[in-house]
Amino acid sequence: MTLDEIIHELRTSTGVPNEALRAGVTKVEILRPRIVELARKLIDGVWLIPDDAQLLLRGLHVLAAAKDTQSWPVLRDLLRLPEEDIRQLIGGGAAEGSARLILSLWDGDAAGLMDLAADPEVSWQIRWGLFQALARLACDGRIDRAGVKDLLERVERERLLPDDSIGWVGWVDAVAHLGLTELRPLLEQVWATRSVFSDHRDVDRAETLRILAAAAERPNDPHGLDQDRIMVINDPVEAVEWLERQIAIAFDGVALRSGEDEVAGLGAHDLEWLAGFLDSAQVPETTMSIEMLDGFLTALIAGPDVVKPSDYMGAIWGDEASPVFDAMEQAQFFYDLLMRRWNAIADGLMRGDPVLPIIVDYRDDLVGRDWAYGFLHGLEFHTTLGRSGKEHKRTDRRIDPILALAGPEVYGSGISLSRREKILDDLPDVLLRCAAAWRPSAVPGATSEPVRSAKVGRNDPCPCGSGKKYKKCCGGGGAETVQ
């Protein structure tokens, strides 16, 4: 395979590209610059489009299989990224995945690796992986065992991990796999005093102590570490297959109130990418959140006037600022997602079957507030509604429920949690009534019952009565595009 063919397969293949992964190992010298370039973009704050993020992760595994220690500096810097960036890069396999990359790409700088493991700013997933990698390196004689022991003692003594950090699980793993029986009192203390172990079962502790005793008897036997897959990457296909399976299992997307992980017009990964981009370093701090943007778009569509993108686009970013797109491809990807959601909202209203709004479950008493803020801001772009003055829009009883969602600063008084939940359940019907009043020639009137007052899970029976699961029936098709 040529380099271009390898990159294309690594970047776009929906399944694990076995041939490209193995062919890449033979072309590391010319593949490395492309992978390092993407890594540096991520380090510099670029919210990589999904194809580039996939190429980066798979490319790192190719470099790891080739034991390309020249790539260690860029991996080291990637490991210092904030948790949300780590999640974008390596998802649910961050701990073990990072451990295997470290073992395969580490350049032998023991002090630098120890400093990384001790750094409180490094995310808990990566520190978990670092502790496991250090245990394997010490077991294999690649790093001083006494130095690793000293580091583990220091982490506990100086409390270099928060008490509730899951990174302590990696610390415990390292103590056990190295057979450091002299640290058993410290291990017992960690179990007793760190809140992350408050629900730890006796059977789990017994298993850890079994591993500790076995490793103490055979301190250079990596069998236990092998069983936990804490080993170098020799076959990139095996490593990528496992990691991508873990990423898929652990994927939870945006925490939506509906309990779903996708919305009309946007798949789960599209929604997560869009939410992440709107919160990334590439956009102004005044940028709308994904929820606020959804309310904003809904108002632009439902209102009586045709609002041009050139008129409203700047409001998404706020304060006359604008995003800094990495490249035209990223800009096109963003606007494509935006228009897909726009078309889904418009199609639902035109058919009299509004889509569910994007409401993030913040688990507080103001759920839906950001959506309402966005909707009310969107109404300001409809000059027809403003002919009676701005106050006319705020006194229109049709939008009274949305005003209530916006909170006491807008509504004048607070509302109970039960009323907020009722408004959110009935919101599609509220939107249909508004749109039908504002655009009577285009939008059918609302029924007497809420359009979607009941929450229907994708695996629940479809409410249409077909007997099929919702995801296989009415919930399975995407909205038609509104031209």
Describe the structure.
The chain is mainly alpha-helical and 483 residues long. The protein folds into two domains: 3-249, no CATH class; 268-438, YgfB uncharacterised protein family PF03695 (Four Helix Bundle (Hemerythrin (Met), subunit A), Up-down Bundle), CATH 1.20.120.740. Helices cover 57% and strands 0% of the residues. It has helices spanning 3-12, 18-25, 28-43, 50-65, 72-78, 83-90, 94-105, 110-118, 124-139, 145-157, 167-177, 184-193, 202-217, 223-227, 236-250, 268-277, 290-302, 309-317, 328-350, 369-379, 390-395, 400-405, 408-411, 417-438. The longest helix has 23 residues, at 328-350. The chain is globular and about 80 Å long.
Which radius of gyration do the C-alpha atoms yield? 26 Å
Order of helices and strands: HHHHHHHHHHHHHHHHHHHHHHHH
| Distance between the first and last residues' Cα | 42 Å
Query: Spans with pLDDT under 50 lasting ≥5 residues?
Result: 447-456, 462-467, 473-483
Q: Which range best describes the helical content: under 10%, 10-25%, 25-40%, 40-55%, 55-70% or over 70%? A: 55-70%
Query: What kind of sheet is the major sheet?
Result: none
Task: Please give the domain count.
Answer: 2
Structural class: mainly alpha
- Tell me the overall shape: globular
How many strand elements? 0
The helix tally amounts to 24
The residue-averaged pLDDT reads 88
Tell me the strand percentage band: under 5%
